[in-house]
Amino acid sequence: MNVIHLPILWLCIHGGFAVQLEVLNQWNLLSFDLPFQYNYEDIRLENTVFTGLEVTTNRLFLATPRLRAGVPATLSTIPRNTPPGSSPVLTAYPNWSMHGALRGNLNCSGLISVYRIRADSCNRLWVLDSGVTSSLDDFTRVCNPKLVIFDLRTDRIVRSIIFPREVLRPSSLLTNLIIDESVQGRCDSAFVYMSDTAAPGLVVYDGVKDQAWRIMHPSFFPDPDFSNYNVDDESFTLMDGIVGLAHSPNLATLYFQPLATDRLFSVPTTALTKGPPVEFEETPVTLVGKKSSQGLGLTISIDEDTLYFSPLAETAVASWNPLTNTQK
Ligand SMILES: *[C@@H]1O[C@H](CO)[C@@H](O)[C@H](O)[C@H]1NC(C)=O
Ligand SMILES: *[C@@H]1O[C@H](CO)[C@@H](O)[C@H](O)[C@H]1NC(C)=O
């Protein structure tokens, strides 16, 4: 039997490392620059929370998925460098006509429900639209999922990629994306790795071949023993699969975590980019370590390959370098 030496990331928060964090912006409820013809009775700001954030030279982009009814716009922007602690009004991106879903205009050329966005090195924003509304309530698929790429200089759509049925499952919910510009080129030549959280899987898109395929592995699934969350005396249940993704170009590795687990995994990107898997092929997933609690967000500092994640139960941010086993 192989003995696996598994680093355990038990964070000791009470004796932990206290950092002074600076509040850039804060809101009790988000506010939007709604056009006058909108009916304020349709809007439910208590259902409008952001899950995705991207920072560009002059703007912050916020993705607010339609988890429940009443989300005004699913993607919006605020200026960067607003006064510390201020509550800027969100502007729908690129404009309100792309967000007709609130008013029942389920036009698939608009944006339906976006969880995360990423900028590439050509000053473009890749928007992953899940196409599903009220995913926490009745989970209604209104459009196929798609990637929409905006030129950030003009805020116009430069490309739209609609995924074929073969890479999806009836309950697919594409939530997160990584743009890998280190394999066969930048921007339009990139590979994109996307998490399917509700029908656990990874969807890989090859920008050169304009082709997508699906990767399956048991580690993408939620663990029922970790489907219950306790945060600050509140508790809830959520059986979400793979959602946190982080990419190291240096190590050619994709790190990932389902929400309902205490584990963190990795897979070499060569196993993802080589094309659609053949029947019975095993995806070489490695268990990287265990965390003190579940988590959604995952990112990496690409200079040192340090992972950053947020153990939900501790409402903390933790860092861990798998190469040196440094933890903070
Ligand atoms: C669908 O959305 C596009 C882009 O947002 C818009 O230009 C078009 O007029 C809309 N069509 C309808 C029928 O609402
Ligand atoms: C909204 O943005 C889309 C995408 O760039 C564009 O096609 C459409 O013309 C814009 N609509 C308005 C009213 O500006």
Automatic annotation (TrEMBL):
Species lineage: Eukaryota, Metazoa, Ecdysozoa, Arthropoda, Hexapoda
Against Gene3D superfamilies, the record matches this protein to: TolB, C-terminal domain
Q: Which residues form a coiled coil?
A: none
Q: Which GO terms describe its cellular component?
A: extracellular region
UniProt keyword Secreted, yes or no: yes
* TM helices/strands, residue ranges: none
Q: Which InterPro entries match?
A: 6-blade_b-propeller_TolB-like (IPR011042), MRJP/yellow-related (IPR017996)
Q: Which family does it belong to?
A: Belongs to the major royal jelly protein family.
The keyword Signal is annotated on this UniProt entry:
yes
The leader peptide range reads 1-18
Q: Give a Pfam family name.
A: MRJP
The main location is secreted
Compartments, record wording: Secreted
Annotated keywords:
Secreted, Signal
Q: What is this protein called?
A: Bee-milk protein
